[in-house]
Amino acid sequence: QKAIVMAQICLYVAVLTPYLSDRILGLRGLEIGFFGWALALAGPAGCFILSESCKLISAYQAKKHQDSLSMADTPPAAAPIKVVGSKNVKMAAPVPVQPVKKRWFQCCMGGIF
After folding, report:
1. How far apart are CA 30 and CA 37, in angstroms?
2. pLDDT digits (tens, 9 = 90+) for 33-51
């Protein structure tokens, strides 16, 4: 976002500085009209919208990947333990293992993902 703002500032300086724009760069910044200025402002707005949507898509993909890694890291359920030494042989119940959620990835939108 800082890069977009800096690019806009440089654009306006190049287009609106009298000697730089018309003699050196050959631009006619004041003659482009309303449509030209609308396009000049629509470009950065479109860039901002696309970059933020790509961040959301990347955050979703990273979350899904981390979820798949956490599911792959969980050990299989323990096998029942056979208790020997008495007349009655008992099978101990397996202890359920809870998957661990890894939250190392924080999205740019304040960690909502």
Report:
1. 9
2. 889 888 888 988 898 899 8
Its sign, for the CA torsion 44, 49, 55, 57, is: negative
DSSP per-residue string spanning 52-81:
HHHHHHHHHHHHHHHHHHHHHHSPPPPPPP
Where would I find the H helices in the chain? Answer: 2-16, 18-19, 33-73
- How many other C-beta atoms lie within 10 A of the C-beta of residue 44? 16
Q: How far apart are CA 44 and CA 5, in angstroms?
A: 8
Is pTM, for the whole model, over 0.70? no
Residues pairing with 83 in the sheet: 90
Give the HSE-up count for residue 83: Cα atoms under 13 Å, Cβ half-sphere: 8
- Confirm if 54 and 85 have CB atoms less than 8 A apart: no
Look at residue 21 and give its three-state secondary structure.
Answer: helix
The tokens 């950065």 sit on which residue? 44
Contacts of 69 (CB under 8 A, 6+ apart): 102
